[in-house]
Amino acid sequence: MTESVNPAESHVGLDFVTGLPVDNLNTVLTVTDRFSKAVHFIALPGLPSARCTAELFLENVVRLHGLPVDVVSDRGPQFKAKFWKAFCHLMGASVSLSSGYHPQTNGQTERANQQLGLYLRCFVSAQPSQWPEYLLWAELSHNLHTSSTTHMSPFEVCYGYQPLVFAHQEPEVAVPAAQSLVRRCKNAWIKARASITQANARYARQHLRRHRPDPSYVPGDKVWVSTTDLRFRAGSKMLAPRFLGPYTIQKVINAVSYRLRLPASLRIHPTFHISRLKPYVDSSLLPPPAPAPPPARFLDGEPIYTVRRILDARRRGRDGSTSWTGWTTAPRNAPGNRPAPSWTLP
């Protein structure tokens, strides 16, 4: 007899929101169920370790919804740690890390983070340090909002009914403190609902304006790689190339992720999301692509480069800037603008 799996909470996404106003708590762990669209917002004093993340996961996800079968996250140190991978494996859950330079792989969680930011900016702009008090209303508002995908609220998908929150007609009571607390909660609820409705409308407009089908590739195809998220030195950011390559598709990871055959000198992760690739079209009307950088050379374990010419120098401090043979942009680990005595001549 096989064990049945509840679709709700079977595939979850995790991400951290950082940089919130510091007042004991400055980080939020966002947990998103990819089936029901439900979220949990968990306030934290800072980024946790892999072990602490696992304990939070047990307390806030497993305790309420049972074990998931897949956990999606970015490539943060908590999620790349051996402890986290072993923990998920022992719990029977697979670990899915987002593609390099493409946070949209965990898109539902990223969207929940954006909704949370919109709500907090709306409600606590006057007193930013009070944001933890209103976190539960942001979560409840999201979970009671009807999804355009399921046409039900996440709460209704999980539990089968839509709960009541506040009575339309507020009764009079003889306890002013209780009435003040309920009114404050009701105001928070109303603002949270308005913020999430506004955010959903904006996302719908962006989707209609930007969404278009992506091309598909097979091993051996050549593609350009967007430099939007890549770090390299260039003489002018405005004139820096928008794409590098072309490079050859080495392996199809899945429908949206591809591994490229990159020169070792680039020192970047070879797996890219399809949105960061552009098909290469061979045409006599286009100038030939720049030759690939030469293979890296090493001396005593350190990469070395050949100076093509000195571009600039300072009299004091003996600083200098150079261009490198075979490179249109400076290698990431090249000296760049560094004191000339640190340039070791082989």
Task: Tell me the layout of helices and strands.
Blueprint: E1 11-17, E2 27-33, E3 39-44, H1 50-65, E4 70-73, H2 77-80, H3 82-90, E5 94-97, H4 107-123, H5 135-144, H6 154-159, H7 176-210, E6 222-226, E7 243-252, E8 257-261, E9 271-273, E10 277-279, E11 297-299, E12 302-304, E13 307-313, E14 319-324, E15 338-339
Helix pairs in contact: 4-5, 4-7, 5-7
Unreliable residue runs: 1-5, 331-341
| Succession of helices and strands | EEEHEHHEHHHHEEEEEEEEEE
Number of domains: 3
- Taken from the alpha-carbon principal axes, the silhouette is elongated
How many DSSP helices? Answer: 7
- Give the biggest sheet: 5 strands, mixed
Distance between the termini: 69 Å
- Output mean pLDDT: 75
Q: What's the CATH first level of the largest domain?
A: Alpha Beta
User: Helix/strand/pairing class, anyone?
Assistant: alpha+beta
The CATH architecture of the largest domain can be given as 2-Layer Sandwich
- The third-level CATH topology of the largest domain is Nucleotidyltransferase, domain 5
Based on DSSP secondary structure assignment, what is the total number of beta strands?
15
Range of helix content: 25-40%
Roughly how many Å is the radius of gyration?
Answer: 26 Å
CATH homologous superfamily title of the largest domain:
Ribonuclease H-like superfamily/Ribonuclease H
Domain Integrase catalytic: 3-162
Protein name: Integrase catalytic domain-containing protein
Biased composition (Low complexity): 330-346
GO molecular function: nucleic acid binding
